[in-house]
Amino acid sequence: MYNFIKRVLDVILSLIGMILLLPVYIVIIIAIKLDSTGPILFKQKRVGVNKTHFYILKFRTMKIDTPNNTPTHLLKDSGNYITKVGKFLRKTSLDELPQIFNIIAGHMSIIGPRPALWNQYDLIKERDKYSANNIKPGLTGWAQVNGRDEIPIEKKAELDGEYVLKSSLGFDIKCFYYTIINVIKRNGVVEGGASEKKTTSSEESI
Known about the structure:
Oligomer: single chain
């Protein structure tokens, strides 16, 4: 029953958010186009519910000449590949806003385990232990508010499993509240994603 309620809330809240944030979207789009050449959005293959694949959307934060499928931490002078606007978008997590469209399309929920990269086999395997691959990934989740990039993959999967067990409206509200606090305080963010370094691609360091 809650899955149905959650889906309805996901769509309603995402549509409201999209309308309210329209001015922000417009400003970001203009800023990206003025700052560097290339597309506005960045697409990346991710793991969805039941280990199906979908393409997550983000605002582009890196230059178009950035080597493809190369982890940020392996790039020489990786900071040179991030655009000026991109640095701000990453710092504020505003680059994640286009995922509202992924939520409306049904690929994601507002709250759930963050979607793993398609080749992040270690995390996917760990999540299998807790049935965390069997639910929709989220824009934010319990692991995100308990360490984000700073926690190891094993602990991240364990926290995702805890979310599976406790999933409810009250717990989702709790996750959302702590997400806002963490974004404001910039807690747990490591450039390149400390817990995902082996498989993280060049745009995945938020």
